[in-house]
Design goal:
Elements (H helix, E strand, L loop, with lengths): L1 H14 L6 E10 L3 E6 L8 E3 L19 E10 L4 E5 L1 H4 L1 H8 L6 E10 L2 E6 L12 E4 L20 E10 L4 E5 L7 H8 L5 E10 L2 E7 L2 E6 L20 E10 L4 E5 H4 L5
Parallel strand pairs: 3-5, 8-10, 13-15
Antiparallel strand pairs: 1-2, 1-4, 2-3, 4-5, 6-7, 6-9, 7-8, 9-10, 11-12, 11-14, 12-13, 14-15
Length: about 280
């Protein structure tokens, strides 16, 4: 009966908390894997607050940012009545100006800024009217796939440090405290334009770009590649694509499927040349 009553009390307490509220309390426990548990003001029975390691701090050693018995203030980012806890983020109170800026962004919003650094995993962008980031050279970040619709060999082929860009806002990355952006979303998708110009059953000429165990990839237009599966390479079965084609070879193929949503093109060499070996 006591446990049931305690569960009811905790649910009623949590029901009065809203996402975005600031809550204070005392750190009950700190673990490297599970993060921080917090005994919230107004409910001393047991800890109801939890802070994931990623939400403790954006700086340095996150696990060392708080200690047991420390009084903290954090923002509520989720409330789970069934599990009986509120998820908190100290990152919100660590740099309130940055957090407020990122929270106010909306998916699809166009943000402008300047490329400040190029890394192997993406590029940082200092956003106009945005605050400085306490750790990174920009509050905006574009991953490599979001730079261009086309395959790129080097980031410098697309952007340079100091270049002005306008990007679409994708999401607020609470782990790093940054705005995830897309440069390619502001540009026409060449695959959709290509899909408008062709039809299933149409014959195209292309160049083999890559051989894999299940078939070959063929480039049929600038930046557009399609897959010819192993069984669609020839009219007679082959064990490997190397048995019949090599990278760089010019081939005729037939379009067998165009998937606009997945941006995939499926081709057949066998149907283009029924007697090919």
């Amino acid at each position: 009966m006591g446990a049931a009553s305690d569960d009811q009390d905790s649910r009623e307490f949590l029901a009065g908390i809203r996402i975005g509220d600031l809550c204070s309390g005392i750190v009950a426990e700190v673990t490297r894997s599970r993060g921080v548990t917090v005994t919230l003001d107004g409910f001393p029975a047991h800890p109801l607050g939890s802070i994931w390691p990623s939400d403790v701090s954006w700086r340095g050693n996150r696990s060392a940012a708080v200690k047991g018995g420390q009084r903290i203030t954090a923002e509520v980012i989720a409330v789970d009545l069934d599990e009986g806890h509120a998820r908190l983020a100290m990152t919100a109170t660590e740099n309130p100006e940055l957090w407020a800026f990122l929270k106010s962004r909306h998916r699809g919003e166009i943000l402008s800024g300047t490329i400040t650094a190029i890394e192997r995993f993406g590029v940082f962008v200092a956003l106009d009217d945005g605050p400085d980031h306490p750790v990174f050279p920009g509050v905006g970040f574009i991953t490599i796939p979001e730079l261009s619709w086309r395959h790129i060999d080097a980031v410098s082929d697309v952007v340079q440090v100091g270049q002005r860009v306008s990007c679409e806002f994708l999401q607020f990355d609470t782990w790093n405290g940054e705005a995830r952006l897309s440069l390619r979303a502001t540009q026409p998708d060449p695959f959709q334009a290509f899909a408008d110009s062709i039809a299933v059953g149409q014959t195209l000429q292309g160049q083999v770009t890559k051989l894999v165990s299940f078939g070959v990839f063929v480039q049929v237009a600038d930046g557009i590649e399609g897959l010819v599966r192993l069984q669609e390479l020839t009219s007679t079965p082959v064990a490997t694509p190397q048995d019949v084609v090599e990278a760089g070879a010019e081939v005729m193929v037939v379009v067998t499927d165009v998937d606009r949503e997945r941006r995939t093109l499926t081709l057949s060499r066998r149907q283009a040349s029924p007697d090919s070996r």
